[in-house]
Amino acid sequence: MSVPEPAGGEEKQAKEVEDAEKYSFMATVTKAPKKQIQFADDMQEFTKFPTKTGRRSLSRSISQSSTDSYSSAASYTDSSDDEVSPREKQQTNSKGSSNFCVKNIKQAEFGRREIEIAEQDMSALISLRKRAQGEKPLAGAKIVGCTHITAQTAVLIETLCALGAQCRWSACNIYSTQNEVAAALAEAGVAVFAWKGESEDDFWWCIDRCVNVDGWQANMILDDGGDLTHWVYKKYPSVFKKIRGIVEESVTGVHRLYQLSKAGKLCVPAMNVNDSVTKQKFDNLYCCRESILDGLKRTTDVMFGGKQVVVCGYGEVGKGCCAALKALGAIVYVTEIDPICALQACMDGFRVVKLSEVIRQVDVVITCTGNKNVVTREHLDRMKNSCIVCNMGHSNTEIDVTSLRMPELTWERVRSQVDHVIWPDGKRVVLLAEGRLLNLSCSTVPTFVLSITATTQALALIELYNAPEGRYKQDVYLLPKKMDEYVASLHLPSFDAHLTELTDDQAKYLGLNKNGPFKPNYYR
To answer: Where's the S-adenosyl-L-homocysteine hydrolase NAD binding domain (predicted)?
Structure first.
């Protein structure tokens, strides 16, 4: 028996339909509590370690979608022929020369545009090139170089060539080469042997191709890390003895030079650019302050607010990294061996700890020491799930990556330069650039700061090559302060900066020359 509808039922039903259409968005709101309950259930599942199948599908989807949008060191290189080693290719530039080995010479035009863009923010180096081009202070210099091959270093290499030098170049890092820039240098006639993603064997082969040449013998070395110097010293001692000067810009390479000098085996003068004021105060500090975030963001998309980060080392690189991370709201710890640097970290508001004290709780571990085995397998075993591990020092020895290449651990490449190392229980550690230099392997660095370092390197080469006999003995030297100040002065016009000039009375009072140098040689 049906119950009769009350009067006005049809109008009421029509009104309800009209209201439902008019306020249809309310449906999602009224269902929200159910969604929240379901979300709580999902969260319980989400916190569990993913299954092996889940890991595979995740890594496939991430790597597939990120191939184009996450290119390291701004290298927009076609990877269609990645399987073919450049050593197996026969390539010539437009002039018919094959005295190079790069990924793809056809990318030279794009690389040239990259170099031209870099030149816009390296006005001081270009100014030096124009001032000294007529004098050719490097005429007769045969420079063999081993540095990062990027648009910025290309400007330096072409400046050295414009000043009269002949150059042969390889890369100091297997991941930092911009392939299109290497192609542009090869097209311009520079004998460059480098490509992104070299194997260890390729790395040493490229260095050897630069040194071991019929009818050409290097008389100057520009190094970043000491590998080139070490190779020439060990493999070609007769060439090493005839070198007129070595210019080294990294902590690692300088340490090697001082070791040679202490052992009485350094038979040529060397210039320690790393400890020059214009390198320490600018490249190491300001460059790393900006590029650490760039490298981490491009590779991991991590949000730093509230994250716990430990920075190993509070030298200039560590100071830059800590300042950047603190500014974004990260909780930053510092490890140090030097009580002076440790005290500086404390005064800057950072807690100084031993790595073992915080390794279980931190979200990110960054090494900046130039030492070896700073992060050991024991540390890696104790890290929390999804901890990010990376290196901002030059050498790849700071993180014990070798200990991770064991049968019990699984490696999954999820993005360019991003590996998940997975433990048997499902825990994963995110390793960036396989423990090599993060910023130049995974991102870019500020061009202006590199202009300061490049100008310093160029002046150091000019100084050593043109120095009268006897000025420099077989030892390691710091760049003269007058030269440091000259490099700084070349970059001031970019900021429309105006220096105050001492009066004669003021200069006499301070015991200084009005034109400098304004700091003693020991000032750092």
So the answer is: 284-445
